[in-house]
Write a structure and sequence with these properties.
By secondary structure, the protein is α/β, with parallel strands linked by helices. It is built from six helices and seven strands, in the order H-E-H-E-E-H-E-E-H-E-H-E-H. A seven-stranded mixed beta sheet has the order 4-2-3-1-5-6-7, with helices on both faces. Strand 6, helix 5 and strand 7 form a beta-alpha-beta unit. It starts with a helix and ends with a helix.
Amino acid sequence: MVTIKQYREKLLSALRAYRPHEDLVPQVRILLVGPVGSGKSSFFNSVKSAFQGHLTRQAIVGSDETSITEQYRIYNVKDGEGGKTLPFLLCDSMGLDEREEAGLCVDDIPHILRGYVPDRYQFNPCKPIEVTLFTYNTPPPLKDRIHCVAYVLNINAVNMLSDKMVAKLKKIHRDAVHCGVREVALLTNVNNCDEVLDDNFLNMTESVTSQRQVKNVQNMLNIPLANILMVSNYALERSLDPLKDILIFAALKQMLRAANDSLEDLLLKETASAKGSLKSRSRLGK
């Protein structure tokens, strides 16, 4: 019988062994998006805490009705104190607001997905990013692009999202699909970690109290059930909890799989495009 501690270590070992598909990029980039107060910054802090082995709060979090995060932040995560930098980056965005001139401007999302937005870019809710701010003649390299979008949603508020908020999330979904980026949904504020852990440890989508929320998210964003994940972020705790770590690591593992799917699909498209160009040249040569 595998213990909770052993399963935690198994997930941790898998994450340490992770490599981006075909080593196409040194680090995959995961974009965290979601309503104000849903737990995006807290998720980064929780991931960092789980790897560091103690609680840490690098990203500023709060409970205001307006977004605490006003800059686009790109965070590294290290494996332990002074350990090696892990092959993924968590990109924290400004929170979405149902009001038109508040929160993240959804028109900024395509620029973020394509890698044009630098670390510490100051968002302006009233004004989308001007294309003249960046050099659009030279597309950003693959390593600067987003490889997975994670919708961070409060599990207790999923069924109460306003029509305006749902419309914004669906707009981001369309942009992600257009850019070929895979998506996951991260349901935060899970009250009972035990309920989503069974004899096999992970049973996220069949939890009795979460079935309605999971189905709602699946219908709203057309995300596979396997990519609808649950976590309980570290907030007021004074020490780490192995059950919380398991959910955090399991969610991150699925995000990295989604990122690899994006990279694999991109590689296949580029290979097909290259073959098409060669055929065209061959015909011209004749």
